[in-house]
Amino acid sequence: MNPYEYQEAHRADFLEELKEWLRIPSISTLSAHKDDVRRAAEWLRDHFLRIGMTRAEVFPTRGHPIVYAEWLGAPGAPTVLIYGHYDVQPADDAGNQWLSDPFEPVVRDGNLYARGATDDKGQTFTQIKAVQSLLATGNMPVNVKFVIEGEEESGSTNMYPFVEEHAGLLAADVVVVSDTQILTLDRPSIVIGLRGIVYMEIEVRGPRQALHSGVYGGIVHNPAQALAEILAALHDRDGRVTVPGFYDDVLELSPAERAALAQVPFTLERLQRDTGVSVPWGEPGYELHERLGIRPTLEINGLVSGWTGEGGKTVLPDTALAKVSCRLVPRQDPHTIYRLVADHVAALTPPTVRSETRLLHAGNWVVAEADSPYVQAAARAYEFGFGAAPVYTRDGGSIPVLGALQRVLGTPVVLMGFGLPDDNLHAPNEKYSLECFYRGMKTAARFYQELRR
Ligand code: BES
Ligand code: ZN
């Protein structure tokens, strides 16, 4: 049996196994789920041993554990490091929008619905099953290592020191990640750029405690208002970020590079269909796909202050908090950008209140060269798996530790994503297309065979 026949013969078992893993609510950002995260890691380690990996271990960290596994039975052949994450986003259902339980996976219309179905248990599992199909049929052409972490969705805090401390263990010729999206089933794509991220919170404090807004309103600067004034000053009217120096290190792309990206435009129709927003917004002078792929942003992710419960309460709050993150592009440094934003917030803060900006986490952008032999091998593999040559895109999302992994190990990366744009990642009704699962396994297995050539 060849690995592709093996994959077809075992589709049903693979699906049941993936469902079992998806049932474990490994939400890394919620401390109440700490044990679930650990269980998901242990499940994965056991699974690695069951499919024939010769070593599989759960490495504890100060936060959530990291799962490492290897099979090094092809001396002389290239070594591939597959990175992924087994943690998932919360699946809160305030709007009652999930059509089925996020942690009771079900198949509807050829899609597997569950939190983590695509991001990233489903896509990581696709890689695992590709490796299994090669091992089980005696066809494994390369050495493989897996490093699957449990904190990607919370900024990969403990993965950074792990990479530094275990650089030898993780050493490889190429890092492969399946945690991104293709355009459509008939038009696969390889992501050659991901944005970096720096996440912070800005707190404004005013009076010692909340005050009656009639008794003090008009003589005490309201922290909610002061924060709104500061935040409003971080963009100009057109949508450019006003933080001094913010754009200084941004690498401008050549006209040829911009033309190449323009082959895959982000259309107004798609924006309207996907989001329900009718009029786009953003930095002038750049197309929508450029604003997402090659330009940095500053976003307000959340705002809290004062009374937000039922009815009215005439209060002048003592504090106001904003969660703010910047998406970053080549050559911007996350820590430099953090300093620039924090300094600007300090400069914008009037003497009537106090402000503090705190760093939560940071991750670098990633670039993969489209003409690297690894990306080219991946392109041939997609053609085999999906029946069409991939196009190259730059995506707006982030995989925080990937830049560090690339730098510390000195390896190229291949972003071999199998998600679809309507997979609802981080949202209600997250799904993974079974067709992506099947074609993805085929693509990944073929990629490892291509690397041997
Ligand atoms: N899988 C995503 C990243 C992604 C999404 C890449 C869409 C390409 C297209 C990843 O799990 C993710 O969501 N990352 C977070 C990182 C953050 C929490 C530090 C992100 O981008 O917001
Ligand atoms: Zn992910």
Would you kindly provide a brief summary of this structure?
The protein is of the alpha+beta class. The protein is 34% helix and 21% strand. It folds into two domains: 3-194 and 365-452, Zn peptidases (Aminopeptidase); 196-250 and 296-362, Alpha-Beta Plaits.
Can you characterise this structure?
This protein has 453 residues and is an alpha+beta fold. It has a six-stranded mixed β-sheet with strand order 1-2-6-3-7-17, with helices on both faces. The mean pLDDT is 97. It folds into two domains: 280 residues, Zn peptidases (Aminopeptidase), CATH 3.40.630; 122 residues, Alpha-Beta Plaits. It is built from 15 helices and 18 strands. Bound molecules: ligand BES and zinc ion (ZN). Zinc ion binds next to loops. The site of ligand BES has 16 residues, from loops.
SS elements, strand count:
18
Query: What small molecules are bound in this structure?
Result: ligand BES, zinc ion
Kindly provide the radius of gyration, computed on alpha-carbon positions and rounded to a whole number of angstroms: 23 Å
Tally of separate domains: 2
The proportion of residues forming helix, as a percent range, comes to: 25-40%
Q: What is the CATH topology descriptor of the largest domain?
A: Aminopeptidase
